[in-house]
Specification:
Porin; about 5% helix
Length: about 230
């Protein structure tokens, strides 16, 4: 779930509240075990009409490894704090919209639950394509979204890893705005992630659902102002 609102015409805040689940190792119930819980804040700046800068002032993650073998069930949750700088460049074409995204993350993680946080950096590169389609029976267009994102990591926490590759995510899905303030995204992610050993890889299949509430507070302020003007 995403909660968002404007600060000024060119500045916007967002809070991402995320919960991911997984099966408990070889099962078919992907809701049976936790995988990730997140509180992730963003401040976004529209530098130009097609360039946006995003900064994370604070975020907290509580994650579990993917349960592939019995020993994975015994590993403690990993606590993480993360700070991010992200740059989006959007090109709107006649038929498609193309977004290039580059992010740099600074992460500190407690891998073993002993209070010892190890730092590292991660660079993320995304190429995203969006195609809005109008349907006569819907008041707003449905947007088809596809992207590929590659993540590379470096720094103290991963200095002994065999390579800088972390993971690759491929996404395909749909987005629809039910109103000017409520939007839903539903999609599928195929993930390919390297483990610390270097010769083990996790392949994930994820159902991705995001509900966004935009103009969370300002919509009520505008209604109050409009009501006062009408009374006058």
């Amino acid at each position: 779930m995403v909660l968002a609102d404007t600060i000024t015409k060119k500045v916007k805040w967002e809070i991402h509240l995320q919960k991911r689940t997984q099966d408990s190792g070889g099962g078919s119930n992907f809701l049976s075990a936790p995988q990730l819980g997140t509180v992730w804040t963003w401040i976004n700046f529209n530098l130009t009409d097609n360039i946006k800068l995003g900064i994370t002032p604070f975020s907290y993650f509580n994650s579990h490894v993917l349960y592939v073998k019995p020993s994975d069930l015994e590993r403690p949750a990993i606590k993480e704090y993360r700070w991010v700088v992200r740059l989006d460049h959007e090109q709107k074409g006649r038929f498609l919209n193309l977004i290039n995204r580059v992010s740099l993350e600074y992460r500190v993680r407690d891998f073993y639950g002993n209070g010892n946080y190890e730092p590292n950096y991660r660079a993320r590169f995304m190429l995203r394509v969006e195609k809005p389609i109008d349907f006569s029976f819907l008041p707003r267009p449905v947007t088809i979204i596809a992207y590929d994102e590659v993540m590379l990591q470096f720094g103290e926490a991963v200095k002994g890893d065999p390579s800088v590759f972390d993971q690759n995510r491929v996404y395909g899905g749909l987005s629809y705005a039910f109103s000017p303030t409520i939007k839903a995204n539903v999609g599928y992610i195929y993930g390919f992630q390297q483990r610390i050993s270097g010769d083990e890889f996790d392949r994930t299949n994820t159902l991705w659902i995001v509900l966004t509430f935009d103009n969370l507070l300002s919509q009520f302020r505008r209604r109050n102002l409009t009501g006062k003007e009408n009374k006058q």
